[in-house]
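In this supplementary section we document a worked example of the pipeline. Step one takes a protein sequence of length 374 as its only input; no multiple sequence alignment statistics are reported here. Step two produces a three-dimensional model, which step three serialises into structure tokens for compact storage. The input and output of this example are shown verbatim.
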Amino acid sequence: MRYRYSTGQNGKLVKKAIIYTCNEHGINFADVDIDAVNIIRRLKSTGHDSYIVGGAVRDLILGKKPKDFDIVSTAAPLKIKKVFRGSRIIGRRFRIVHVYIGQKIFEVATFRSLKDGNTSNTFGSIDEDVFRRDFTMNALFYDPQQQIVVDYVNGMKDIKRKQVKPVIPVNQIFSEDPVRMIRAVKYAAAAGFNLPVNLKLRIYNQSKLLKTISPSRLTEEIQKIIRSDQAAAIVDLLEKMGLYGYLQPQASKLMKSDAAFKTCYLKTMASFNGNEVYPGQALGCLFYDYLESLQKWEPGVIENYNEIFMTVRSFVLPMNPPRFELGQALRKFLSVRGMTIKKQHIERIKPAEGAETGAVLKKKKRGKKKRITP
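The serialised model returned by step three reads:
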């Protein structure tokens, strides 16, 4: 174990970070994406410090093979784009670079400063950037060339203790960005970690802040959750913590009122392994059990596909997934039950009509459970 030092205000050396060697952090280099290694190698060859950061490092330490590898560097976006031709700069306030290698996309960001607090969008150093990150488990930097992990916040110890611990002070972490509540619960459920009591209390007391989050951000979070191989555990804990109602209010309401629905809903989530065979497969986990509860579906030709589609779209609000993917998931549900759709009935419907159409089907359920005519 080594240490990284910097000069303090009094001119003396101050211990800033712990450096773990490959024998200490236990990362299996074979699990590291070789293209991510090559990106870092090329950036470092131009004189810029670069690391793999965030969830990928956490997963590697836990012995998991990450799906995504985010990279952070001292190089500015224009410099990164110059190094990697065909890359694309994205973002309005703080610009990052998407580096394309084959079918893979790597997100490469520049270190941010603390000049304007934790929401700063100015470039900085690794010493500053680390304290902008949400939780200690996500604030570790991995250099695959030297095979070292740089730890400023005792993140390695928290991973070993299986603790979700914030980097940002607990009295401001969620008020700055309420979505961090969802992420805290997601990390705990997916990795089997514990949420400290003070963090739980903050989540309970500040959960209403999620009302201010845009549908697009909520859609992004629920998409990540349902595509996880731990989707059922994450949804279950989000529901217990009172957060799932902000992501999927209708499903949450049904889980509270109907224990059988909750069992089926979580079972459907658990049956999905995180790898989509067809577009929209993960989305089906959100509404299949709801459709099953509406009526008995029998083989035949569907005449009112658009009505059913808008019912599904209304059910998953405030999520606003791509129409094509949602349609794929719905058509899979119907085809498995031997139902076919006339092409002339698949028309473009205005989203505003969804709430009214969904209400029609709910009304049918409260009657004699009339079957939707195929």
